[in-house]
């Protein structure tokens, strides 16, 4: 995944007032290292995840369901990678809400591996942080029904 965040278009609401924000930025930095050519060491991401973390994905998607713990998160990344050949997150905006929650709003551009179709959608994500690690991640895709034709038979 590529997070496009040129200085002019990344919006962060009060990052200095929310300790959870630093955790989220560590996660994105680790994800960038992991996904880079030759990166492949999942431990950089696992270090940012709570041992009991849970990732909730819409059941309608091929990688839907609840993915638990760092190993579950790794399994989700593999399932996600089987569906998308390229993904770019543009114009992220981060909104801390209390000491342990961050909401992010962005726009996703992705190429489906099975069909080669490029689609895009708005995305809102909910992150809960516990002990400087991500404990819960819940993405809200604008309309998964519009994603399914592009994905094809990826299950």
What does this protein look like?
By secondary structure, the protein is α/β, with parallel strands linked by helices. The chain is built from 4 helices and 8 strands. Strands 1, 2, 3, 4, 5, 6, 7 and 8 form an 8-stranded mixed sheet that branches. β5 (84-96) and β6 (101-112) form a beta hairpin. The radius of gyration is 15 Å and the shape is globular.
Primary descriptors:
about 160 residues, alpha/beta, eight-stranded mixed sheet, 4 helices
Outline of the structure:
The chain is an alpha/beta fold and 155 residues long. The protein contains 4 helices and 8 strands, in the order ββααββαββββα.
Count of beta strands: 8
Radius of gyration: 15 Å
Low-confidence runs (pLDDT<50, min 5 residues)?
1-9
Q: Major sheet, described briefly? A: 8 strands, mixed
Q: In terms of structural class, how would the helical and strand content be classed?
A: alpha/beta
* Coarse shape: globular
Beta-strand content estimate = 35-45%
Distance between the termini: 20 Å
Order of helices and strands: EEHHEEHEEEEH
Range of helix content: 25-40%
Q: What is the mean predicted local confidence, pLDDT?
A: 86
Q: What is the overall number of helices? A: 4
């Amino acid at each position: 995944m590529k997070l496009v965040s040129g200085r002019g278009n990344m919006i962060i609401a009060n990052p200095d007032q929310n300790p959870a924000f630093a955790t989220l930025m560590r996660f994105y930095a680790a994800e960038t290292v992991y996904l880079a050519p030759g990166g492949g060491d999942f431990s950089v991401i696992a270090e940012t995840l709570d041992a009991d973390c849970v990732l909730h994905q819409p059941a309608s998607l091929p990688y839907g369901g609840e993915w638990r713990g760092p190993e579950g998160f790794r399994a989700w990344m593999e399932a996600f990678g089987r569906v998308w050949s390229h993904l770019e997150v543009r114009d992220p905006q981060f909104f801390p809400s209390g000491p342990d929650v961050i909401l992010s709003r962005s726009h996703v551009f992705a190429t489906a591996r099975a069909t080669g179709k490029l689609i895009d959608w708005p995305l809102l994500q909910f992150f809960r942080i516990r002990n400087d690690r991500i404990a819960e991640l819940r993405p809200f895709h604008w309309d998964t029904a519009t994603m399914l034709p592009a994905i094809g038979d990826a299950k």
